[in-house]
Amino acid sequence: MNTEKIWLVTGASAGLGLILVKMLLDQGHKVAATSRDGGALLDAVGAKLEGSFLPLTVDLADERNVRRAVDATVTAFGGLDVVVNNAGYGVQGALDSLSDADLRGNFDVNVFGVLNVIRAVLPRMREQRGGHVFNISSILGFDGGCADWGAYSATKFAVSGLTEALAVEAAPHGIRVSLVYPGPMREARNAHGHKPGGDPAKMAQALINAAQAQYAPLHLFLGRDAFDQARAKIQSVQQELARWREMSVSIGVADERRLAA
């Protein structure tokens, strides 16, 4: 069975994005990849694969720039099957210490860049009745309790929220959507200063496996740190729901009517 797909990966000049692009090319897929410097991206991939690899210089915050990149991908490869919204960066600092420019710049790339890509690819995927969108959030887009990373966490919570809505909107058109929560990877220290243990190559392969799976996950946590942190957050919320249940449900209109009776 031919499993070759046409992929578009944003933020591919380093880290998970670069590893994913190399892995996809090694496995015979066609890949368009974006970076702010397409020439540097071509050098980073380390291979000139005519007909298989398309490096694109893209400013994801520029909607027209993004649309041109998607058009170029379809023109070069004849279609588009899988999109990975991977581009993003973190702004560190206490929330009251960050400038308006810092905050808006972070949202421009991490949130509005994702939305620009979605608006460009969804009409094509609806027309072809299929496709798969991976939006890379972060474990800090599920559990925001990490001091000095509130701005980054806010952008990733936004990605998580819009992705859940996208999944509902896209499903009737045969489009699959996955929200990915990576934990820290071993190429850098994590937000707590600990040496992370996540293997970016294994994370990249997990995305490929999810794209090939019969049933794609909506929520995909990658890394033991991410898995454990998510489970702890869920347990904490469940405990608070139970502790404050009486107050929570007491304000409902139906409850007031019962009390009046």
From TrEMBL:
Q: Which GO terms describe its molecular function?
A: oxidoreductase activity
- EC top class named in words: oxidoreductase
Give the Enzyme Commission number: 1.-.-.-
Q: Which Gene3D superfamilies match?
A: NAD(P)-binding Rossmann-like Domain (3.40.50.720)
List, alphabetically, the InterPro entries matched.
Answer: KR_dom, NAD(P)-bd_dom_sf, Sc_DH/Rdtase_CS, SDR_fam, SDR_oxidoreductase
Keywords, A to Z?
A: Oxidoreductase
Q: Name one Pfam family in it.
A: adh_short
Question: Does the UniProt entry include the keyword 4Fe-4S?
Answer: no
Q: Which residues form the Ketoreductase domain?
A: 5-188
The UniProt entry's sequence similarity note says: Belongs to the short-chain dehydrogenases/reductases (SDR) family.
Its protein name is: Putative oxidoreductase
**Organism encoding this protein:** Achromobacter agilis
